[in-house]
């Protein structure tokens, strides 16, 4: 707003760095478009996207939509995979926050808070994968 005031114009077409709480076009896909993506998935890996209708989680077994991630948990069937459950919990929390604040959400990426965003450290992103592999190896050796 300060920049727009200084320029004596409406606050349009300034950097997204000034958008802290919501984004322009926060929902790039409709629920129908996400359902089309979901219908083409043939593997068990979960994808998470948001639309105006809520948070969508899908894989080859179907698509589930809700605004409350707790109601999505029974559909995920990750009871015996703690590291995967942890990862999905983090991603579903990010997706819910993005949906509530009308921010863009991309799976495996931090939410962008404009110029207040911290620099990303990619090492943390892959830590759950190593823990998951270790957990599976330990289960297999029993």
Account of the 3D structure:
This protein is 43% helix and 11% strand. It starts with a helix and ends with a helix. The protein is α+β, with helices and mostly antiparallel strands and 142 residues long. A hairpin with a 2-residue loop joins strand 2 and strand 3. The chain has a three-stranded antiparallel sheet, with helices on both faces.
Observed structural traits:
three-stranded antiparallel beta sheet; 142 residues; alpha+beta
Domain tally: 1
| Overall pLDDT | 86
Hey, roughly how much beta strand do the residues contain? 5-15%
Please write the string of helix (H) and strand (E) elements: HHEEEHHH
User: What's the helical proportion of residues?
Assistant: 40-55%
Radius of gyration: 18 Å
Gap from first CA to last CA = 62 Å
Largest sheet: 3 strands, antiparallel
Strand order of the largest sheet: 1-2-3
Task: List segments where confidence is low: pLDDT < 50 over at least 5 consecutive residues.
Answer: none
Give the class from helix and strand content and strand pairing. Answer: alpha+beta
